[in-house]
Design goal:
The protein is built from 16 helices and 14 strands. It has 446 residues and is of the alpha+beta class. Strands 7-6-2-8-9-12-11-10 form an eight-stranded mixed sheet, with helices on both faces. Strands 1-13-14 form a three-stranded antiparallel sheet, with no helix packed on it. Strands 3-5-4 form a three-stranded antiparallel sheet, with no helix packed on it. Strand 6 and strand 7 form a beta hairpin.
Length: 446
């Protein structure tokens, strides 16, 4: 057993003086910035919203940790970089996490890993539907006023699994078993919803119910807001096109190249190639063309925009279908459709920086809840970033940068009779940003 009063052995002297290191610093934490995340979570009420969707089967007089407290602990763990539920066994004594859950550093310990695991396996399908609706409500309430128009970026992402999880499927492209959840963000990077599904290309019949429930939830909050759907060619199917027209949605979707579509741009491809070969030093040559055509399975012809490009790597032609009224084909493609690529950066933040692909539970319902938990952590980090100064590097910083600079701050906690004093490093380089953010967080949502 280690004695905290004994010094660490094997340390070399510094400038002729011996170095003595003991584990006797008192209540210390490496996550001093959790206090800022706590304020964001309280303002957005992420944990309370999610906990209200679940039915607690425990006896009320035997409850130590409420569902909201367990949710809040788990959300803050993920936001702080502790994506594994096993980390709760060591963090339950951390004074900063206790304070983030409105407990004194000397109060009882927080919940353990088994408690978190029971929470993950608690919801059924109906509870998950309520959670999905709560995520949409959180999105709608994140605006200070009702927007006149929003853009929904829908995409799917591969999530490898290494066990016998429900819904897992082998994907030949990735050569692995996994899931391929559908994720929806808006154009500004706000998280809207995520749906767990097998690792295969989504069909129109599978996309339709997701869009229908999503549209119903948004329209309940904003009945007159105009909505544009933006996605790649996976989502350009007859069912989606008919749904958008029937419900008054604008859309701009990628279209897979076909022989029929290529017949419209054969001459243009040849001229763009010749133009590049005539002046290769000028860089890639690019032209645009629009026409009306449609697949045999479509109920009507659609407006198609073709982007034809030629460069050193060879020709590259892309097609999109849209019902937008703008006449400039180039602006439609570059300003409206290409911004869809930003959604991939949001997915990266969600998966890489918040470990949303940690879907290792056996039951599909538990893994779906994990997607929502990581979505809630995304909202906390998004709220912290949204409180940063406009046109500053902090406003566009990645989540791992915010965590490293603003959350992972050493802190010494001293509990007194009438106050709790937290000592942060005098040399902390982000002092002015924390001052600014804490002043802006109360105005995140009106």
């Amino acid at each position: 057993m280690y004695d905290p009063m004994l010094p660490l052995p094997g340390l070399s002297p510094v400038a002729g003086k011996r170095v003595v290191v003991n584990f006797d610093g008192g209540l210390l934490s490496s996550d001093g910035g959790l206090l800022a995340l706590r304020e964001v979570e309280q303002r957005l009420r992420v944990a309370d919203r999610m906990a209200a969707c679940l039915v607690d089967p425990r006896a009320p007089d035997a409850i130590t940790h409420t569902l909201a407290a367990i949710m809040r602990f788990r959300l803050l763990m993920i936001a702080a970089g502790y994506e594994d539920g096993n980390d709760a066994d060591t963090l339950r004594c951390d004074p900063m996490f206790k304070m983030a859950l409105d407990l004194l550093p000397s109060d009882r310990e927080l919940c353990s890993q088994p408690t978190i695991s029971r929470l993950e396996n608690l919801p059924d399908a109906r509870a998950l539907l309520r959670l999905g609706r709560a995520m949409v409500d959180l999105y709608c309430e994140s605006f200070q006023q009702v927007p006149g128009r929003i853009t929904l970026d829908i995409d799917d992402t591969f999530d490898a699994v290494h066990g016998g999880q429900q819904l897992r499927l082998f994907n030949a492209h990735y050569d692995e078993y996994g899931f391929q959840p559908i994720v929806v963000f808006d154009g500004a990077g706000r998280f809207i919803t995520a749906v767990l599904r097998p690792a295969k290309r989504p069909s129109g019949k599978e996309i339709m119910p997701i869009l229908r429930r999503l549209l119903r939830a948004i329209r309940t909050n904003w009945p007159r807001t105009k909505i544009m759907l933006r996605a790649d060619s996976h989502y350009c199917c007859p069912e989606v096109l008919d749904f958008c027209r029937a419900n008054g949605l604008d859309y701009i979707l990628g279209v897979a190249p076909t022989t029929t579509l290529r017949r419209h741009i054969g001459d243009l491809e040849a001229s763009v190639k010749a133009r590049y070969e005539a002046a290769p030093k000028d860089g890639k040559a690019r032209r645009y063309k629009e026409f009306y055509d449609g697949a045999a399975s479509w109920s009507r012809v659609e407006r198609i925009i073709a982007r034809v490009e030629a460069g050193a790597e060879g020709p590259d032609t892309r097609f999109v279908v849209t019902n937008l009224k703008k006449r400039n084909a180039r602006r439609l493609y570059e300003s409206d459709y290409c911004r869809r690529g930003q959604a991939e950066n949001h997915i990266k933040s969600w998966k890489t920086h918040l470990a949303a692909d940690r879907t290792s539970c056996t039951r599909a319902t538990a893994n779906q809840l994990r997607l929502f938990l990581h979505a809630g952590a995304y909202w906390i980090m998004w709220g912290l970033r949204a409180s940063m100064p406009r046109r500053s590097m902090w406003r566009v910083a990645q989540f791992d940068t915010l965590r490293l600079r603003l959350v992972k701050i050493a802190a010494r906690v001293v509990e007194m009779k009438t106050m709790i004093r937290v000592h942060l490093p005098t040399s902390c380089p982000a002092q002015h940003i924390l001052y600014y953010a804490l002043g802006r967080i109360p105005r995140l949502v009106c």
